[in-house]
Design goal:
heterodimer; A: Immunoglobulin-like; 9 strands; about 15% strand; B: 2 helices
């Protein structure tokens, strides 16, 4: 049992990732508002649909603003709680906005002691016919946004388009991290083969590469499912999608090449060299090219990697273990493949 | 007979798919409850991929076992 410690560790970590990743709730959010367009001078009732909200418990203590910028926010005149999920906010939009834009976008901000502060960016669009920021009046500054309830709770951020799919950060993203680690293992094995010509190293490299491709395919498929429900299409030709698909095709050719040779020494030597080449191609395809183009991935245009706002400290508690857990599982699978291949080679030698 | 063993799960999957389709048409199944079913689909995709890989490994080992029997 002792020599299997890392397999047990990997499974234990993945168990934690599944439990924490699926059970920790999302923060309170706002999933919908109506109406989304109003004219200046209009009094209206804003229907709010909350997510994971407990408005009946917070009744009487709920405050709401339509915020233009840090200095200007319009407070709701009255707040009516319909149930835990639904609010009615009465607003009186002044005749003039403290803005010189024709169409001003406002953020809805709701604060209560039970759920804390939660926002909906771009909640409302106000079209001004006459622009006069000087006439905006005191309504925009009379009730400033202050005394917000922001306590730390064990919960994941609520993002309007992502919603619960933010949990895919523990299943989709670690696939790519694990894939890279496993491909690094393959490169190390190939380099060792080229130095000592030990056939075992060639088998190890082949096993690592198989698992790396498995992880790459799982990454592409999970990414496509996620994309369909957030970006609207399984494959939108995003730079990262295209480049990883190319990288995986290059890696698939490794096996085509490996199976094309009869002579085991030649096979292993060509495969090892090609493996170095594919890894050398993988790095620019995944880490360099996507940074040069716009991408739908977070931090698009410049840095398609994990941004600070999309991964908060609570998520880090699950995300980093997820990378370790999926990598260890991949190493386990690779070890099984390597042992099966080694058995086969021993059999052939005896036969 | 051997192919039937691998075909059966695939056929099962095919018969389930239309049922999923009906739910999706009615009330936007994948986007309900904060899109939680997207997470389910992602986890299921990983699960299915790993199971398929196990089937691959299983066949590989069966082949080896047969060879050992022939050698004896």
């Amino acid at each position: 049992m002792l020599k299997h410690w890392w397999k047990i560790l990997g499974v234990a970590i993945l168990f934690y990732v599944f439990v924490a990743g699926l059970l920790v709730p999302l923060k309170t959010g706002i999933s919908a508002v109506s109406p989304q367009k109003v004219a200046p001078g209009e009094s209206f009732t804003l229907e709010v649909t909350g997510y994971n909200s407990r408005y009946t418990q917070a009744q009487g203590q709920i405050r709401a603003w339509l915020k233009q910028d840090e200095a200007h926010a319009l407070a709701a005149g009255s707040v009516t709680v319909l149930d835990d999920r639904r609010l009615q906010l009465a607003f009186a939009m002044p005749e003039y906005l403290p803005s010189d834009k024709k169409v001003q976008v406002l953020t809805l901000l709701i604060d209560d002691p039970v759920d804390g502060a939660h926002v909906l960016p771009s909640a409302m669009f106000v079209t001004q016919d006459s622009i006069a920021p000087g006439l905006a009046g005191s309504a925009w500054t009379a009730h400033p946004v202050e005394g917000l309830h922001e306590e730390w709770t064990m919960s994941y951020p609520f993002r309007n388009i992502l919603q619960e799919t933010i949990r895919n950060a523990y299943f989709h993203i670690p696939m790519w991290f694990a894939m890279i680690f496993i491909f690094i293992g393959a490169v190390i094995s190939s380099v060792r083969y080229l130095r000592k010509f030990d056939p075992q190293d060639d088998l190890k490299a082949a096993a690592f590469t198989r698992v790396g491709i498995l992880y790459g395919i799982m990454g592409l498929v999970t990414g496509a499912i996620w994309a369909k429900n957030t970006w609207g299409a399984y494959w939108s030709g995003d730079i990262k999608q295209n480049m990883t698909a190319i990288a995986l095709l290059i890696y698939l050719a490794y096996f085509v090449l490996r199976n094309a040779f009869e002579d085991p020494d030649k096979k292993a030597r060509v495969a090892a060299v090609y493996n170095l080449f594919s890894f050398a191609a993988l790095i620019p395809l995944i880490y360099v090219v996507p940074r040069l183009y716009d991408s739908l991935h977070p931090g698009s245009g410049g840095n398609p990697a994990l941004g600070g706002e999309d991964l908060d400290n609570t998520m880090r508690l699950v995300f980093y273990p997820a990378i370790i857990g999926w990598t260890l599982l991949g190493l386990w699978i690779a070890q099984l493949l390597y042992r099966a291949d080694r058995l086969r080679d021993r059999l052939w030698m005896n036969a | 007979m051997k192919t039937a063993r691998y075909l059966l799960p695939v056929l099962c999957l095919l018969t389930i798919t239309p049922a999923f389709g009906q739910v999706a048409e009615g009330g936007d199944f994948m986007h309900s409850i904060g899109k939680i079913y997207v997470v389910l689909a992602v986890v299921l995709a990983i699960f299915i991929a790993i199971i398929l890989f196990l089937v691959f490994l299983e066949r590989k080992l069966t082949k080896l076992e047969n060879q050992i029997q022939q050698n004896d």
